[in-house]
């Protein structure tokens, strides 16, 4: 156990003694709780808990609360692939798990689907956590440098949550302070996508100058200015703000803080976390704290013995992804592994599977939210859309060299875009980028329609994929619409 992992474990203990006022107020997303037909707030205060008024008094209180915000990310990214890989042509859930994740595999989700509400609630619960601490922090004595750093970290996490929410649901409520009454909770309505992105940009631009470029010692794993810049670049890119994306991503590339490691085997796996290619990762820890990941169980095929823990086939790579790697690409057999069982072909994510794990929630390898290879590929896409094609292709060179592939030169702008799309798919496979990449490229409908036609004879369940323009967004959860009549539903639901 190292660095920020130690703090997360301590916070798990602290949370048994302190009540952080993360009011589960589930209206505008995880912000209001009702019981039965009544409308009173649920009393979430255990008798033995420290009253809220006695917390947030010292720098250590604030530090524990900020670290707790990081801890919220663990459950979110344990299943982030469900929303970002499974709906795409990258991964699928096999027959033995259709009843659990089939709605996301086949794009047949409904407003009543549990995971549709899950992403909304998890996002807003974490936002609520950040808002509470941001509201309390100025009254707590500490140096301005330390205070500003904590504020920057919280604003990054809040921006990350809104970035996930706006991509998943489109228009969403913008909540920037602690909610203290039921009436206040009902006042929140969905805001235009442009306003949500404007808030994301504001939080990140305010966080950038107050965070260090690197952390050392026990602070390794906390947010850095490079992480802020990279997320801002990703937000600009998703909006097709090519000039702004180019400018901010150029700062990350030019800083020299990160690098492409010589071998793809060095990037992922237990004991390889927080290396020079990781910009920001969700930190997991084993050791019986129930703070590890479940990736080994999730990504490994159910009938195999490739790991000690029984796999589930919840999120297994498709044959289409396997075939997308060029001949001689070293990444295909490093990032994934093949297991066959009768007619079934399983291409599973070796990237995130620790084969030594034998218990759930004990995986200690981290989840890379932002990685330098992603930064370079985003930078290349921004450059190419700015008609700087030669420079765009140059960003792919180190990534392809590591994969054992020759550099690409002399391509047209259109061909360069296709090359970037292919590199993003294979380099970042299983990492939670594919679905929203397809949406940004306006290719989710034709890509999934072609995938359905190509493989329906091999796996008849693929014929059940229901793709349409409206599926680029999830529906607003049924419960939120029921609780708050001011919320509206997305088209197509």
SSE blueprint and pairings:
Elements: H1 4-14, H2 59-78, H3 81-84, E1 91-92, H4 98-105, H5 114-136, H6 144-169, H7 182-186, H8 193-207, H9 225-238, H10 242-255, E2 278-282, H11 295-299, E3 316-317, H12 319-324, H13 331-335, E4 336-341, E5 344-349, E6 367-371, H14 372-385, H15 389-394, H16 397-402, H17 413-427, H18 434-440, H19 444-455, H20 478-483
Antiparallel strand pairs: 1-3, 2-6, 4-5
Helix pairs in contact: 1-2, 2-5, 2-6, 5-6, 6-8, 8-9, 9-10, 9-14, 10-14, 14-17
Please supply descriptive tags for the structure shown above.
two-stranded antiparallel sheet; globular; Serine Threonine Protein Phosphatase 5, Tetratricopeptide repeat; mainly alpha; 20 helices; 493 residues
Folded structure, characterized:
The chain has 493 residues and is mainly α. Helix content is 45%, strand content 5%. It contains 20 helices and six strands. A two-stranded antiparallel sheet has the order 1-3. A two-stranded antiparallel ribbon has the order 2-6. It has a two-stranded antiparallel ribbon with strand order 4-5. A hairpin with a 2-residue loop joins strand 4 (336-341) and strand 5. Helix 5 packs antiparallel against helix 6 (144-169), helix 9 packs antiparallel against helix 10 (242-255) and helix 10 crosses helix 14 (372-385). The model is unreliable at 6-48 (pLDDT under 50).
Largest sheet: 2 strands, antiparallel
* Count of helix runs: 20
Helix/strand order: HHHEHHHHHHHEHEHHEEEHHHHHHH
CA(first)-CA(last) distance: 46 Å
Q: CATH class, please?
A: Mainly Alpha
CATH topology: Serine Threonine Protein Phosphatase 5, Tetratricopeptide repeat
What is the architecture at the second tier of CATH? Answer: Alpha Horseshoe
The assigned structural class equals mainly alpha
Beta percentage is 5-15%
Oligomer: single chain
Number of domains: 1
Strand order of the largest sheet: 1-3
Strand segment tally? 6
Q: How would you describe the shape? A: globular
Output the radius of gyration. 22 Å
State the helical fraction: 40-55%
């Amino acid at each position: 156990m190292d660095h920020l992992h130690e703090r997360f474990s301590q916070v798990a203990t602290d949370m048994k003694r302190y009540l952080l006022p993360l009011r589960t107020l589930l209206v505008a997303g995880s912000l209001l709780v009702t019981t039965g037909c009544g409308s009173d707030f649920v009393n979430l205060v255990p008798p033995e808990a420290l009253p809220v008024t006695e917390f947030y008094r010292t720098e250590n209180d604030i530090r524990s609360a900020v670290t707790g915000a990081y801890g919220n990310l663990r459950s979110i990214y344990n299943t982030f692939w469900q929303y970002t890989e499974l709906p795409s042509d990258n991964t699928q859930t096999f027959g033995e798990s259709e009843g659990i994740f089939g709605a996301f595999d086949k794009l047949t989700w409904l407003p009543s689907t549990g995971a549709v509400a899950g992403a909304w609630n998890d996002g807003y619960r974490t936002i609520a956590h950040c808002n509470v601490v941001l509201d309390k922090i100025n009254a707590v004595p500490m140096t301005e440098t330390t205070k500003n750093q904590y504020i920057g970290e919280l604003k990054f996490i809040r921006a990350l949550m809104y970035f996930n929410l706006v991509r998943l649901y489109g228009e969403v409520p913008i909540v920037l302070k602690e909610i203290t009454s039921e009436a206040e909770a009902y006042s929140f309505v969905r805001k235009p996508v442009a306003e949500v992105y404007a808030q994301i940009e504001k939080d990140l631009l305010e966080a950038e100058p107050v965070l260090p470029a690197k952390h050392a010692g026990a602070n390794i794993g906390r947010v850095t200015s490079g992480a802020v810049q990279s997320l801002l670049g990703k937000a600009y890119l998703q909006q097709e703000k090519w000039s702004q994306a180019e400018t901010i991503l150029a700062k990350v590339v030019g800083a020299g803080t990160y690098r492409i490691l010589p071998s793809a085997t060095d990037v992922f796996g237990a004991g390889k976390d927080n290396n020079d290619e990781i910009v920001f990762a969700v930190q997991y820890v084993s050791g019986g704290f129930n703070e590890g990941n479940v990736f080994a169980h999730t990504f490994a095929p159910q009938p195999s013995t490739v790991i000690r823990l029984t796999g589930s086939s919840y999120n297994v790579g498709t044959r289409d992804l396997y075939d997308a790697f060029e001949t001689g690409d070293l990444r295909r057999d490093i990032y994934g592994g093949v297991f066959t069982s009768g007619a079934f072909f399983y291409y599973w994510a070796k990237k995130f599977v620790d084969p030594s794990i034998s218990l759930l929630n004990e995986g200690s390898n981290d989840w890379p939210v932002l990685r330098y290879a992603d930064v370079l590929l985003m930078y290349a896409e921004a450059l190419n859309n700015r008609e700087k094609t030669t420079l765009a292709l140059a960003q792919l060179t180190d990534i392809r060299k590591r994969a054992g592939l020759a550099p690409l030169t002399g391509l047209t702008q259109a061909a360069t875009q296709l090359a970037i799309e292919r590199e993003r798919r294979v380099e970042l496979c299983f990492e939670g980028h594919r679905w929203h990449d397809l949406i940004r490229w306006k290719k989710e409908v034709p890509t999934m329609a072609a995938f359905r036609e190509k493989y329906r004879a091999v796996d008849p369940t693929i014929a059940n994929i229901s793709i349409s323009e409206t599926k680029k967004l999830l529906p607003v959860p049924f419960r939120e619409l029921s609780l708050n009549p001011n919320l509206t539903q997305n088209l197509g639901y």
